[in-house]
Write a structure and sequence with these properties.
The chain is of the alpha/beta class. The protein is built from 8 helices and 6 strands; from the N terminus they run H-H-H-E-H-E-H-E-E-H-E-E-H-H. It has a 6-stranded mixed beta sheet with strand order 2-1-3-6-4-5, sandwiched between helices.
Length: 257
């Protein structure tokens, strides 16, 4: 119909009308065309985001469990083992979304020891956690914990690394910086070295104390699922910051106990 009317117009007017129609078709048609550049960019970004940690096997150790409840909230009596597992599971999903393979030392409320072992329950539990990590060929270890202290004013996340291990120190620094930034504690804490079994397996490792259950305000925060998600995201961000470091020092050799 449109073409019929254009043909019947005088030549000069027909040319103008044709040009207008072409412009209108281009304008309205463009909104329905696939946005190839934008779509390609988004896909590329998604691929890059999902492959950042694709070469890594990351062990997440939810501290305590079963008979060993860990620290206890002063007001709510919440057990550390429960919060540790929740944060660890949230972190697992976040790291998987970045392409990492994740090894969990526990998936529920249990300890990794026999009812009546020939050695101390805690030692057997730690040995079995270590075995899961080493047999899984983990490249990185993150042990998730909640803190407590007699001085109830103490608060904020704090990261520990194996003394004399530059690889652990670099990882701890990246985690501490990310958590301080994301969680805005009352005062920024600093990384510290510590003698923890889980940090002696010969790979970059950090023990992540996410907050103090002995501090009333932080206990309330740690009981909030939304805050625990923030905690997990901040740890994820720390891992990404560590992965982006220009240099990654060699870890100290594994220490047998």
């Amino acid at each position: 119909m449109l073409r019929k009317y254009i043909v019947q117009l005088p030549p000069a007017l027909a040319l103008v009308a044709a040009a207008c129609c072409a412009a209108l078709l281009l304008f309205f048609g463009a909104s329905h065309l696939p946005r190839t550049v934008s779509a390609a960019g988004s896909t590329e970004d998604a691929v890059q985001a999902s492959s950042v940690l694709a070469s890594l096997r990351i062990a997440i150790d939810a501290g305590h469990g079963g008979y060993d409840g860990g620290a206890v909230g002063r007001k709510t009596r919440v057990m550390e083992k429960e919060i540790n597992l929740d944060v660890a599971q949230r972190l697992r999903e976040l790291l998987r979304a970045q392409g990492a393979q994740v090894i969990m030392t526990r998936e529920g409320d249990y300890a990794l020891c026999d009812e009546n072992p020939k050695i101390r329950k805690k030692l057997q539990d730690m040995q079995r956690r270590a075995l899961l990590i080493t047999e899984g060929k983990a490249d990185l270890v993150l042990s998730i914990h909640m803190n407590e202290y007699t001085d109830r004013r103490q608060s904020g996340p704090q990261i520990f690394f194996r003394a004399g291990c530059p690889a652990g120190k670099a990882l701890a620094g990246a985690l501490q910086g990310a958590m301080n930034t994301a969680l805005s504690p009352a005062r920024d804490r600093h990384i510290q070295s510590g003698d923890y079994y889980i940090l002696t397996l010969g790979v970059p490792s950090a023990l992540v104390e996410c907050g103090f259950l002995s501090n009333a305000k932080e206990e309330a925060l740690l009981n909030d699922p939304d805050y625990r998600e923030r905690v997990a995201r901040s740890i994820r961000d720390g891992v990404l910051a560590w992965a982006a470091l220009a240099e990654h020092p060699e870890p100290s050799p594994a220490q047998r106990r």
